[in-house]
Every structure is written in C-alpha cells, then in structure tokens.
Amino acid sequence: MTLLALRQVSKRFGTTQALDGVSFDVAAGEVHALLGENGAGKSTLMHIAYGLMRADAGVVEVGGRATSGFASPREARRAGLGMVHQHFTSIPALSVGENIALAAGWHATGARAERRAAEVIAQLGLPLDPIRLVETLSVQLRQRLEIVMALAADARILLLDEPSAVLAPSEVRELLHTVREFAGRGGAVVLITHKLDEVFAAADRVTVLRRGVVRYSGTLVGQTPASLTRAMIGADLPRTSRAEVAPGAVVVRARALRLADAPALNFEIAAGEIVGIAAVDGNGQRTLLRAVAGVERDSISGGDLDVQQPVAFIPEDRTREALITEFSLTENLLLGTHEQSGAWIDWSAQRARTCELLEAFDVRATGPDIPASALSGGNQQKLIVARAMAQHPRVLVAEDPTRGLDVQAAAAIHERLRDAARHGVAVLLHSSDLDEVLELADRVWVMSAGALRELPRGVSREVVGEAMLGGIPR
Amino acid sequence: MIGDLLTAAVRVATPLALAAIGEMLVARGGMINLGIEGAMLAGALGAAVGASASGVGAGVGLALFAGVATAAVFAAVAVWARGDEIITGTAVTLGMIGLTGIIARQHFGLAGVGLSLPTMAAVPIPGFSRLPVVGEALFDQSLLTYLVYLMLPLSSWLLFRSRFGLELRASGEAASAAAANGVAVRRIRTLAVLFGGAMAGVAGASLVLAQVGTFTEKMTAGRGFIAIAIVILGARRPAGVAAASLLFGGAIAIQYVLQGQGGVVPYQLWLALPYVLALLVLVLSARRRGVGLEGRPSSTAPAA
Amino acid sequence: MTGFAWRSSGIRRDLATTTSAFLLGLILLTLFLKVAGFDAGAAIEALWRGSFGSWYDFTSATLVRSIPLVLLGLGFMLGSRAGALNIGMEGQFALGAIAATAVGLHAGSLSAWIAIPLVLAAGALAGALWVLVPVALRLRFGVTEVITTLLLNFVADAALSFAVTGPLQEPSHIYPQSATIAASAQLPRLLVGSRLHSGLVIALGLAAFLGVLLWKSRWGFRLRAVGANPTAALLSGRIAAGGVFASALLWSGAIAGLGGAVEVSGVSLALYQNLSPGYGFTAIAVALLGRLQPLGVVVAGLLFGALEAGGGAMQRDAGVPAVAVQVVEAVVILTMVVLGRRQTSHR
User: Least CB-packed of A289, B1, B131, C334 within 10 Å?
Assistant: First the structure.
C-alpha cells in the first residue's frame, strides 16, 4: 500500500530548476532510497513532502489523499510523517524527554512527559535517559534521539535526510538496522543519501535524481554501483590521479602538542603533501585544524607547534566564517592581506587585483564590486580559495572545502587543492565525507577522542571507519 | 525603620516585579524588549486616564490594554518584520514618551500638577499582616502586590509545565530547531511579547495607582530597563526574579526613606544607586555564568 | 547577527526610502494630534514656521539644533559600523557638557585659541571615559553594551543634577545651573544676528573626516569588517573583534562628549539640568535615517533639527508638548528598521 506519493513535482529557485516534474512514492514496509549528488534536488523534494517548502506545481498524496502539499511541518506530522534532518533538531538546553515531548506535540511536559518518553524509547530499544540534558549526549546518541523524535508522534512515514553524515561506518549499520525494523513493522522509509553502499545495504527500491530530474527509479535488481553512479553523475566518475611527489621540507611540526585536555600530539607535515584527517564530528579535528591555522591559539594548552608562515585557512562555513556577504568581492579578497596595504587603501589597485584573481580562479561574477552574497555557492568557494592562494601560503588548512557543492564545483576545488600541493604548499584537510579524504590525501590521519593516528597508504574504507571509532586497525 | 524600609521596598518592587515577570517570558523566548519601558509608561498613562474616568478597576484594565498595544508594535516590527530588536525597542519607548506626552497634555491640561487620582488602598491579609517585621511589608499591600505573588508560581508553571512554555523555551534556545519540530516560533514569540506588554502595562498601573498617585511625563524613569536587569540577575527564573525585584525595590526605596533625613551624602547618590547596582549585578551574573563575548542572547536570530 | 549592515542600494533608492519614512512619521503625528483633539493644522503650521519659516528660524533654531544631532548621529554611526550599539550617548553628552563647563568656567585667562580646543577636548575625553565602563564590562565580562550604556544614562543624569546643585552651581547658590563660561571658551558665531555658531563647521568637518576614515583607511576597513561579521573578520581576516569594537565605542563616546561640549560652548554657555531634550536618542533616529553614512547623517540631522526647532514652536504656539516630535522620530526609526531589513533579505 502506497503511504506517500509525490506526482509531477516542480520547484524553481531563481534561475535554477531544482525539481522538474519529479514523481516518487513509498509503500508500507518498504525502504525507498533517494540517491543523488549534492544539489540534485533530493532534500528539496523531501522538504516539499514535509511541508517545509511549497512546490511550484505537483501533487502530494498521503494515505491516498491528494493535496498541493502541507503548509507546515506541523501539518505533515499530523498526517503521519516524521523527518530526520541533516542537522540536529534537538534542543541542547532541554532534556531528552522535553525534546521528545516537543517533537511529538504532547501537551503534558515535565515528569509525565518524561515517563511517556521513556516508554517510546523502550519500544525502540535505544539507550537514552529521558531526564538527561541533550547537551551532555554524544553526537551518536543525539543522532538516535533524532530518530526517536521523528517517530514519537506515531509517524508511519519516516524521511531520513543523509542521516549517516556524522556516523562512523559501524554506526551506520546499526542505523540501517533500526530503519529496516521500522519498515518491518509496516512503516515506510525514504532514505536520502549519496552513498551507494547504504543503498545496497538497506533499500528495496531506489530513485536516482540528477539536476532535478529522475534518472532511474525501480528495484535494485540488475543494478550495480557503477550503473547507479552513471545515473547519478551522468558519466563514469573521472578518477584523477596525481603523480607521486617526493615530499619537501617539513613546514608544520608539533611536539607534545596539547589541545585543551586531549592527549599530546606529535606530527610533521612536509611541503607539497596533502594530509587528510578522517574523523567523526566532535573528535577534536576542528580544534587541531584551527590551532594549525593560527586562528584559535587559545586552545593550545602545552607543547610546541611550529607552523611556517604564511598560513591560509579555508573555514567550514562559507557565509558565516569565510565571507562577509554584504562586502564586495574586492573587500572580501582584501580580507587577510589588508595588513600589507598600508594605512590607506588604494581601492583602484585592489579592484584590478580582484579582476585578475576572478579570472585566474574562474570565479563567475559580473564585476569586482558586487557583494559576495550575489555569487553561487560554488563561485563563493572559488573566491575563498582564490583569496587563500593569493596569500602565497606555505601551509593551507581546509575544513570541509566542498560542503554543499555540486559535483563540478567540488571537482574544481579538488583540482585547486592538488594544484597547491604540486606547487609545494603543505595542505591539511578535513572532510566529513570520508571518500573525499581518501581521494585527496597522500597521508590519511584518523582522529578519535582527540588522539591522532596515521594509517598506512591504501588502507580500505572499513579499516579507516574502524579507526574513526577508536578501534585498532589491523 | 527596617520595617518601613521593607514596606516601601515591597511597594516599589511591585511594578518592577510585574514587568520583570513579563520580560522573563520574553527573554525565555530568546528576545530582549527594550520597549517595555514604553509599555510601562503607556500603562501608567492608561491607568491615570482610566482611574480618573471611572475608578481604579478601569485604570488597571486600560493600563493592560495600553501595554499590550505597545508591545504589539514591537512584535510587528521585531518579530514579524525581523527588525533589530534593540533598535526597535528603543524606538517604541521613544515613541511612547511622545505619545503619552501628547495624550497627557490633552487629557490633564498643561502641567498635570495637582492631578489627584483614586488610588488602590492597601488590603491587609488577616492574620499574616500581623506577623512581626515582614507582616506589614508583605501582607498589607495593594492587590497588585498580591498579583505578583500569584503570577510567580503561575509563570513558573507556564514556563516549565505547559506546552506553551516548552515551545517558548525551545524557540529561545534554538529557533530553527524548534521550527523544524513544528513550533510556530514567531507566533509563540508574539504571544510572549504581548504577555510581557500586558504585565508592563499593569506594572505602570501599579506605579500610578499604588505608589505615586499621579501621572507625570516620563515618570517610569528607566524602571522598564531595570526590569530587564532584574530578569538577567534572576537568571530568567521566577524565584530569582522575585529576589532581584526586592533588591532593586530596596535600592530605590532607600532614597525615599533617607532623603527626608538630610545628611552629608548628596541625594543624587541615592538616585543613581539603583542603576549602579544594576550594573554591578550584570557584572556579577556574567561572571557566574560566563556569558559569551557576543554579549547578546545567542539565539536572537529569527527562525528560518 | 549584528543588527544592521545596510547595503546601500543606490542613492536614489536611499532617498526614496528616507523620504517616505519621514513623511510617514509626519502623517502619523498629524493623525495622533487630530485623534487627541489638538488643532493638527495649527500644530503642523507652527512646526514649519519654527523650522523653515524665516532665515532667522532656519539658522538660529534649525541649524543650531542640527549640530548636536549630527555630532551624536555620527557617534552612533561609528559605533554601529563596528557592531556596537551606543544607547548611552545621552549620558556621554551630559558628561561632556559637565567637563566642558568645568574647564570653561576657569578659562578666563586663556586666549580663545587655547581655551576652545581645551574645552572641546575635555568634553570628548569625558565622553570617552564615561563609555570606558561599558567597554571594559563587554570585553572583560561579556556584558552587552546595550544595557550598560543605557543604565549609565540615568547615572549621568544624577551626576548632572549633582553638578548644577553642587560643585558647579552658580555663585549665589539659588538656581540649579552653573555660571556663564568664560568668553574666551565660547565658540564664535558664524553669522551676524544669528545664534548659529561654529560648531556647524566642526560637525561637517567630522562627517567628512569619518567618511574618509571608514571607507579609505585600513582602520575603517577593519572596523566595518568586524561590524558586518565578527566571525569572518577573525577567521578570514585575523582581525580580533575586541580591540576594534573597543576603539569604535570609545570614539563614539568621545564624539558624544564633544557634542555636549559644543552645546555648552556654542549654545547654552552654561550648564543646565535639562541641557539635552533627548539628543542622545534622537541621534539614533538620525543615524538610521542617514543609513549610517556620513552624508546621510548630515541630511537627516538637518531634518531632525528642523523637527526639534519646530517642536519648540509647536509647544509655544499650538500648546502641543514638544515631546510629540518623538513620535515622528520613533516612526522613522521603525520604518527604517523594517525597510533596511527588507532590502538586505532580498537576495
């Protein structure tokens, strides 16, 4: 029995056709994977199903009743939908029980709600204590809580938006197990992902989106990772490989470096190499990267950290940490090198420099004076990379440099990072996408509970995953 | 002497506590409304107009309405049009000073001198009012003081036991997460702001009808701002707010008790005392909780 | 996160927004006056007559009132550009006036070339010192400057009251005001037969100077970066917000204090309890109406100076309390807040 169906749904953002006549359905007892690259329209489609967005055209059918879509998540919940978002929606300052009560729409709060929450948690067999404050939970437990919150209002249709982003591989397996059980009890599950192994591990059917259009929809019979990849990307993934470069002089050296109360770290990074850090969210990689970048020196509680200057930094959040969105492109490019400009700024020289950099780094912009907010995400990131490289760094620190970018834009950023390394820059990189780390890095480091370990070249994804959880690699 | 001071302190603390209880809910919703100074002033004028026309009951009613109406302007601009709440609150207060000036002039004539209003008599609570030292101070006051006693547990229930409170706290702590959980953040915040306005209006009524007995231009003199300091000092909790209100009530009451006695200290020192105290309190509470460098509540960003 | 990082969207559009905000304020004031039972026509006419009615009214009332508004508006603009909301200019103005009076009373033996700069410097210094407490509390303890500067207004009011009844009271000890400051400490008049004084030159000069400083200098670049996005300024520009924020707020306080000194040495020539009819708050409206741009602040200051001057005439001739013009100010601020928001959220 079909529980949720979307028919001929279209949605346009400005000049981008995010969804173009997409149809999708999921039945009771079924896990239906929604596969696609970043920006393919998966989240948009589910946001429409869940009442977070209105479609320009199309029909949303729940339990056989056709509507033009829910006006709010509240309505969607009432109709039996639950959603686990990419970002946590639990509220750290409230207790587990209060969060569940909030999500479930219960009227009672306090002790009674906590008792009811305990029942729900017990039904799902999860290790959560209703009176604990969410801010004291680990990232993994918060992820579990998200599922409880999504199901607490007796949802029959569960939408999971890339739920594995913050999890290590073995935790993903447990998550998929929970999801299958929910389907086994007659629920319907939509699993949004861009990871093929999750599709093959848990899904009954798969729908592949590319640029807002359905490229494949059906069972997994006869499908292979390669065939789904082709549907997702449009062609076989180009595997660029980099000629092996003999590492140069050591430019970053840490001796007994202590960050807050984490274990002491010892490492070296040489000119011309890309070091990739694999880690589950919240294991100290952010602190380490920012200490090396020199923007959070306060976190260093002991030991030595030698970093040859200049260091360029690409922070994780483009619009909040990297750019001043209402500043012009010229002003944004000046940021970080303004100390070299003298007490008075020569704006016409700066403008000329901006035009050169826009050209050299292929930033598509109508001019040097438009605000950074007018650029697309991919062009913003290119601008940020341009700024970093214009500082002629010896060390480049990059946090999640392709987050939220489409395949082409991500490939362009990858090429820039490799290019930097070819020119003798030491690159230290973290990505929440393990595959990106494995693809780019000459050396793979794993961070877990603040401890750092280097893995040998060419290790398998599984071994890295094990190490991310603190296990000992074979 | 101590008994007199305590009685005066409770009387002065009453409008502060009423306004602070309202602002406590606003703060729990992740906002700061500097317009409650204006709402309090509007309430004061409403009380004066209502009471002079048809008694104290009408005065309190009109004060409540005036407070809500003032807060509605803040809600419209800061919550719905997403204007900067600090600037919006300042403007609302500024506008209310002008508007109450116009209306007062028209209603009460030129200077408003000699305006004498019906006031609320103290209503002793049998038995309790005879208690030594605190009896008269706590239980021989106007009905609006007893409203504070009622609103304290009620606001506690509202915040920590009701669905409204849960949604309000969720909106205040993490607005976009609350919205993702189906909370209508702007509606919840609007309700809190209107409630805050109602309480500030009644606070103005208590200032006019149970304390001063007349209306003068700008008579609230920053009491609304002190209420905000009280909320911060009281850690946004009813018991804390009650204690902080009493502290500030005492600081203001001292000038009434000591002013008459002359002395070597210039009386302006007593005028400044409550504000200096408020500053000290902000420092101490920031020290205790380690407020971030941002300075403002972290979750003032409107919901996505 | 920071309240307003206006993006100028062309001078023509800015003018249209500003004019409509101002007109809306006037219309609402007329409406309120009508509803309250005043003769709105007479009031608006008095408003016009008192501000632009004659050359004398324009120079002696409107322009004279504009000077403190432009100065304080520039002060608020400077703070806001760094993300600091200085709601305490009323207090800094009062402290500046007290210090200027204290110096001006004893400057009789000095030449004007020394006395006037000394008086102005004393005012600016006092304003900066008065805002030092909020700066320290913000940097050291993270207490928001909004509340601290606001609370200090009331303390400053008490200090002013103490000054005019205590140490600075006139010799006969009857009136709550100071004696007239020394002639050499008084700002020269600009026009014969008008009260317009050379504070106008100071205000216009400061506006031009701040314009150059904010948009051409590295200091101004840092300040605007911190105000627009402190996180990006730190992570991508390695600009520590604390120092920039502190200097902007201190200069903002100094400018407000200078405003108080200019008022004493140019207009009142003595210290009074009610020296400021709320300039510190009106200046917020001036800065916002001027879209946090120096030229805009000058124009908006002129408009509000006219409003204040007209308000005085309105009280004299139509019996409408002068505070009524604050309704216009409030409406202007609220309109600008809403429209400013709209424009930045359009992208």
Answer: B1
